[in-house]
Each structure stands twice: as C-alpha cells, then as structure tokens.
Amino acid sequence: MTAVLEVNHLSKKYGSRAAVNDVSFTLEAGEVVGFLGPNGAGKTTTMRMIAGLISPTSGDVKLLGQAVPGKTLKNMGAMIEEPSFYPYLSGRDNLRYAAKLHGNIPEKRVEETLELTGMKARGSDRVAKYSQGMRQRLGLARALLSSPKLLMLDEPANGLDPEGIAELREVIRGFGEQGITVFVSSHILSEVEKFAPRVLIINRGTLLRDTSTHHLLAPTADSADASYHLETTDAAKALEVLRRESWIQNLETTQAGVRLRLPRAAAYRLAPLLVQNGVMFTQMQRDTSVQTDLESMYLEVIGDQGNAGGVK
Ligand code: ATP
Question: Is pLDDT above 90 for 21?
Fold first, then answer.
C-alpha cells in the first residue's frame, strides 16, 4: 500500500544555515504522529515544505505517491502557524469563502467542520470577537474542509487553555480513528504523548528519534513496564534476592530502599517473592518520579538548548 506521506532526505538552507537537514520519514494511513522539538528546531520549515509552501534546497516529498507540489495536495489539510481570517466576517462565512476558493466543497461540509471543532454555537459571530483559542479551532475547521487524508497541524495547542487542549486532543484522536493521518507539531512532550502513538523528535534541523509512545499511552497494558520503590531497611538482602530474577531490571538502591523496574503484569509476584526469601519491607509502591524513557530522551535531545522549560 502506498504511504500517505513520504519525506525523502529533505533539507532547507537559509544562506549557509541549515534550518532542516536531511530529514526522512514515512506516515501511513490513520497514523497520528507528533513532531516534537524546541523552538527553532525546524518543525515549521519542514511542514511548510511538506505543504508545498516553500521549496526544499534538496530532497523531496510525496503525498499519496505523487510529488509535492502536485495534484494530490488537495488531499492535505494544513494549519501552519497562526491562521489568519477576515476579521469582519463570521467564522462560518470565512469557512464558506475558503470552501468557495477551494472548489468542490459542499455547503454542508462547512457545518460539519464547525461541529467537529466545537465552533457551531459561535459560527455566526465575527472573527474579530474570537479568542485566540477560537481562531485556532476555526483554523482547524478550515483545514478539515476538504476532508483531507493528511492533516498537518503546526503547534495547534498554542493559545488554548487546558480545557481547550484536552478537547483538541480528543478531536485529534477521533481523526486518527476515522483513518485520517495526522501530523502535529509541538514543543511540549506532555501535549503530544497523550494522543500520538508515534513521535518524531527534531532538533537543529536534524531528525534525532522516530519512536513509539505506546508504553506511555497504554499505562495499563500488560506488556508495559513500571518502576516500583520498595521501602526496606534490608536493601542488601533485597538486592541479592531480586538480582536472581530475570524479569526484574534496573535495580538500584535508594536512601530508603530499592528501586526496580518490572513488567506491570508481574507486579503481583514481587511481594510473595520478598516474603518467601525473608526480606522485610515496609512499603512497596509505583514510582512515578522515574522519568519515562521518552521524557529523558527528549530532555537529552533539547537539553543543550537550555529549553527544558518546555517539557511539562
Ligand atoms: P518554532 O517552534 O519556534 O516555530 P520551529 O521548530 O518551527 O520553531 P522553524 O521555524 O522551522 O523552527 O525554524 C528553524 C530555523 O530556521 C530557525 O533557526 C529559524 O530562525 C530559521 N528560519 C526559518 N525560516 C527562515 C527564513 N525565512 N529565513 C531565515 N531563517 C529562517
């Protein structure tokens, strides 16, 4: 099956400076993928090349198997940077106008996109009266007008309050379930890890990781590992016993006892194992203070830019 999007060795130079450097990846139908990186990492530049708004210095993009820019571009909906509208027109009229410019978009699609983005009730108000969050939603509605197969959103959570971000998350998840491929940029890991099963991490124009967030998205999945902290005055003995078990990993002593990692589904075996081997412990609990792999990876990736404040 043809991939929805193929990005091949994409680079963009501004003067001698590489904004994007040899970026390659593929997105399949229905995938929801986060594009993560600190400010200035190259996310917007990559997205603009994918949307055919600027041309790459080298490399190419294929949408549904055809070169961009080209006729398959009509299958892409994009919201790149802050969307702009005619302030004196209503949200609905802005969408109607965009639909007319695009051509072949039935009137009922305007209402559908207002509905999908939660903007129906305010659709008749002039855009000048909208909050930034509402303008973002209207931008999303406009990107959806053409019923795209690929939806590309650049920092869509900008300007949204926590409630708006939570709603956006649900909307984005829903798109993936409908088979729409969604590519969403953000500089905040906690924002994308909640809805994107896959994350691409970019910094200084270079794609550094292409990784699954499955273990973060499915905290109750049997296969997922978890960290536990065991409070015990007998850490040496606990270590001796636990070291023999192949299903227990990352053993280390702490001030109050021992920390370890094991498959969540095997957690029930821990207490009996300790008791049977005469290890006394006062408490055993999930250790949520341990950074997830992705978090530490992202911090490492962006750390040298002093930008860790973006990670929540
Ligand atoms: P942000 O989250 O701040 O939007 P970003 O990851 O989207 O960041 P880009 O906007 O793609 O990053 O910028 C990548 C680099 O390219 C930055 O160093 C930026 O200054 C530079 N850059 C982007 N557009 C231009 C341009 N038109 N001319 C010169 N340099 C540019």
Answer: yes
